[in-house]
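Possible regression after last week's pipeline update?

I re-ran a chain I had predicted before the update to compare outputs. Posting the input and the new output here so someone can diff against the archived version. Not blocking, just want to make sure nothing changed silently.
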Amino acid sequence: MIVCIAEKPSVAKDIARIIGATSSKDGYMEGNGYQVTWTFGHLCTLKEPHDYTPMWKSWSLSSLPMLPARFGIKLIEDQGIKKQFAVIERLMQAADGIINCGDAGQEGELIQRWVMQKAGAKCPVRRLWISSMTDEAIREGFAQLKDQDDYQPLYLAGLSRAIGDWILGMNATRLYTLKYGQNRQVLSVGRVQTPTLALIVNRQKEIENFKPEPYYILSTIYRDTTFTATKGKFTNKEEGEQSFALIEGKPFTVTGVQKKNGTEAPPHLYDLTSLQVDCNKKFAMSAEMTLNIIQGLYEKKLTTYPRVDTTYLTDDIYAKCPQILGGLRGYETYIQPLAGKKLPKSKKVFDNSKVTDHHAIIPTGVPAQNLTDMERHVYDLIARRFIAVFYPDCKFATTTVTGKVDEVEFKVTGKTILEQGWRAIYAKDVKPADDEEAKKGDEERTLPVFTKGESGEHKPTLTEKFTQPPKPHTEASLLRAMETAGKLVENEELRAAMKENGIGRPSSRASIIETLFKRHYIRRERKNLIATPTGIELIDLIREDLLKSCELTGIWEKKLRDIEHKKYDAAQFVEELKAQITEIVRDVLKDNSNRRVTVLTEEDLKKKPAARTKKKEKTPDTNSAESSILNQQCPLCGKGIIIRGKTAYGCSRWREGCNWRKPF
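New output (post-update):
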């Protein structure tokens, strides 16, 4: 009898139906020479400190660092898990062979390997490796089963990650809790969560310490078109006024009209992070909510495997694309122009060298029915993005008009869409959310017809403005920062190049953010992520860059990927971590200060934050200051304009949820 083990009961039932195991038993399905059973995600975990020695049961600084000579696993303490494991153990010990049907990724490999080890399985093991749960994909997967040994490096990478998190998390959490937690607050410290918290705290400090500085923009209106001085900002008011005096009352002359045609390629397909970013921007979904929804769509056979970090497809998917497009119900208007034509095969979409385990997230072609509103939102993003990559480039014309008054030069640029191309897919949105920040200010604007040499009257203005602080992190910006080791990168090509040194894996980032909420390290203010006093103080306490450095943690992530690709030794990785945590413990124990962190309760987090005691530098309250701030673009949402309220300036989009305010 061949035993198949899947990661969830729902997945097991789909597999059982395809291979003919249709007889239901207690904890498994049977038939056609197969027994199909399942886990509930993790059934096993690494042993806890007290499982190695009773001395490690109580929390004590004298017992640190805790470094087992050999790590072991155990069943998770749960009656349901114990019952299901007993079924798995009995089936595996009598099996002629096992097929590992776990999720095709590092975590899925670790889950099933641990169960097989704990069950004492001795028979040969093969691996089902598929990227979608359609009937066709399952059949193809069973026709092309892989040898389990092919995935040994994947398992070693997952095991190294788990052991590394244990070494750092168990030791550093006890260390900081005992040293600084007032015996009341558990100070959770982790290899990924602490650098992520540091990103939020550091951004918050930048905002709080920001001092607005005035600058001046010289512009002029000629033929109802605003031209801006090419010199840019004047940091000195007198210098701006001198330039203003030079041009006042003198004619404006057009010195050049340059037209240039350009093209814009379709956006890349989605990986998990870019999908989470777009869902947060467009629908205010948390990263965890997006992951849960896309996982559900995958299990409903509507989309491919979600926990991916590539935006490319393999060449073999190309032949299936017409069939996938044909299955997208409700998108016929967009698909019709592609019908009957050979689909383009761009290297920006199909590239085997850019895909390791799984390709980008795309629809499967199974018609989508009975979706919730949230599921429909996520599915729509994926479907439109998939259709768009087969559309032609967007063609546009850029017109740049230069002018001169006396010795002062001016310029204005307009952009006209000539052929929408792929942008037709996003006609309602104008542009996909993923590119919104990168294209800000690059919207379509048609200019009047100007002729070189023409001249006439104009109306100059010198506008006082103030520099703006960086924006607080949202989940969207935080995910991008985690992906690129703290550097906010919107350019897709550059972002892809920096992924090698990102913090955490795409599949784990959502849970890391949720952990920060649970630990009372951060809270939400609308879409913004705000660090609590506990979170700020914890980062201030940690002097070891090892624990909070994005770049260094990114290098650790690269080592784990190198283990997966046989370029680095797993044992060396663990030994390095042991040496590092030993040094951290030694350094913290040397701290003779009496520092403690603020302890927060759930009730504290519900209270409105107290006004800050630190005096912030006020923007000058003058007529020129008011005129410079009114009707300017909102620095928070970038879409509304600043208007005057009863007690403060605010964003015109306050009804849509923008909470930017500046008191008088």
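Follow-up from reviewer: compared with the archived run. The two ends are 78 Å apart (CA to CA). Marking as no regression found.
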